[in-house]
Amino acid sequence: MINVLLVEDRKMSRDCMTGYIKSSDRYQLAAHTQNAGMAEILCMQNKIDLILMDVCTANNEDGIEATAAIKRHFPNIKVIIVTGMTIIDLIDRARAAKADSFWYKEIEGDELLDVMDRTMNGEHIYPDKTPLVHFGNMPSTEISERELEVLRLMVEGNTDTAIAQRLFVSVPAIRYHITQLLQKTGYENRVKLIADLINKDFIVPGL
User: Fold this and answer.
1) What is the pTM of this model?
2) Which one, of 127, 106, 104, 110, lies nearest residue 52 by Cα?
3) How many domains does the chain have?
4) Among residues 133, 135, 155, 37, which one has the least CA distance to residue 86?
5) Do 146 and 195 have their domain in common?
6) 78-91: pLDDT as tens digits
């Protein structure tokens, strides 16, 4: 049997993935935790072959950072990043952390088990791109790199002046980008835009 460590803080997702694992004759749940920071400790305490790792876990612990640490100390343990978040650079971050595979939660159980099988057989399963998300009238594919930088700093609560200082540009340049984003999305103010970004897990403060 293949021993699985499940790192997931949301009960519904945790129960769902636990059910998939228990329905298989190939996998068994060896341990589970809501905190990504506990994952490495559990790898020391248990024989773990495969980790299903959420991205944003309890106490705002980052599953991708935890994956990088685990891969440094336990390179033979396979890690699959499993998330429902649409954050634009998650896939690149997961690759850099040496996660073996990456999959979105909006999948059927059999597909998840298939990804687990293929990962254990040495494949690296990654989606081609982040799922398309709409913010008002604008699809996420239309956000430029500079606009994304501005949005990230806005979500963190920075003022226009602080954003300008962080990006080494003028305050009018930042306000121009924000105006462009509001025109593209159709939102009447930045508060509604930021709320939608966070609600759809496209930009998560602290990640």
Assistant:
1) 0.79
2) 104
3) 2
4) 133
5) yes
6) 999 998 877 777 88
